[in-house]
Amino acid sequence: MPPSSARLPRADLARFHDDVIAWFGREARDLPWRRDASAWAVMVSEFMLQQTPVARVLPVYAAWMARWPTPADLAAEPTGEAVRAWGRLGYPRRALRLHAAAVAIVERHGGEVPASIDELRTLPGVGEYTAGAITSFAHRGRAVVMDTNIRRVFARVVSGVEFPAAGITAAERELATALLPAEDAHVWAAATMELGALVCTARSPRCVECPVASLCRWRAAGYPAHDGPARRGQAWDGTDRQCRGRLMAVLRETDAPVPKTMLDVVWPDARQRERCLDALVADGLVEPITDESYALPT
DNA sequence: TACGCGTGGGA
DNA sequence: TTCCCAAGCGT
Q1: What structural domains does chain A harbor?
Q2: Confidence at A4, pLDDT banded by 50, 70, 90
Q3: Is A46 a catalytic residue?
Q4: Which of A43, A46, A106, A234 is the most buried (most CB within 10 A)?
Q5: Chain segment A56-71, per-residue pLDDT in tens
Q6: Residue A193 Cβ under 7 A from any strand C atom
């Protein structure tokens, strides 16, 4: 990355902050986890939002928080109940990790979601992004927050490229740190994330509505297309992921143990089906009841 | 570092 | 219709 793209002139930096935060004040969505939400509520929302769109999270989040308003409430349940309540959000291992994190919070943190990055990072399912998000949004702390939206906004406005690199680079982390304001860093994190989600989108950015279009180096450069390795999409048809999804869908439907014959009919390839079922058991998402029946873990 | 891990909606 | 991708994590 050329030196000129690593930083913004002081005056531009101030405008970047002020204009994005002012825009956020006008345009921020009224999301439930932003409305006098507990730290646990923020944490639940962050787990659900990992790779899952807001619109699909909303109803599941509402039901989840009504049923398990504190970490202790969830920790007291069988993991299978968490998996079932996760519904069709996808990546059900997140439900398992959220449950395990709730148990750890009860056992090691007196039932309160910790506020430090280091403590958060020890919780299952809490990585670099989620730790920063919980620190920032739940505790209003000053933390670097880098999700796909924020990374894209910084890549475009500051670095002048369409997309950030596949993995977070040291330079990118330094840039995000340098951009972090001294005061109200949590508002900055929320505002830049919202800008990426609503305006500076991956596919068709709405630059006409962008509060910092005049600062944007990608725009100034004439919107150069992404160069570098093509960002390969994930295969889906016939994959283990698809197979696992089919099996889990059957098990979510029923409280009682499911006869194996009911699983057999949702995936034709017996070898792959057996492998996936074994993997689901190994992951803790499925529990064998007898040789011929399975259920969500109790 | 690159890959596996679900699901479904919008362009 | 097909493709892309959506507040990542763990290995």
Answers
A1: 240-295 (1.10.10)
A2: very low
A3: yes
A4: A43
A5: 999 999 999 999 999 9
A6: yes
